[in-house]
Amino acid sequence: NSFENHKVKINTLISYPLADWSNFLIDQIIDYAIEKGADGIDYLPKFYYLAENEDVRSSCLGLYFLNYAVGIGDFGLFEKLVQKGIDITMVNPEDGNSFIQLLASSRYEIVPKIFKMVISTVEDDEKELLMNWEAKDGTTLLHSVANNPDEVISTKIVEELFRGIDNNKRLSYLMKSNQNVFPPFFIAINKSHSKLLTAMLDGLGVEN
Fold it and tell me: Is 29 in contact with 63 (CB distance < 8 Å)?
């Protein structure tokens, strides 16, 4: 009731982290503000200010920001965070998985668009490093893609990853394995993901 004796003019609500505001509470505040004649409401997290900090850009806090953007499907927010310098290849020290590897196995609709952005902005040598990076268990980015349960999303990711890659490199990525993990190509076969297999073999002159 602290607003009762005041004219409400809400321009911006700032919160960090966003998780500390429940949707119910936000809805109640918005309804109250509208009822009292608020001119407008903006919800602006402190992502952009915090992302200026070098420690944030290369820490779990930076990954929190990226995960939030992916979770709500906000590509614009994700893109701005990357532009601020948050590293999407940051590695979890516990399992050796990079953020982008985990992203490749997720089912969010925004994921293919993110990969299209990433691939269009990296140099060939950076792309090669990205494709060859191995987690502690020996899995690569393409292993994560092949293990994605959503075939539509995994197929779109492969189309972006293989864009402009020569056949020899394509084959080496598809057949990458060790004693603990099967090649990504075999994983796709095991899942009977025919569309993914077609994308993997496209340009090799092989019929699946």
Answer: no
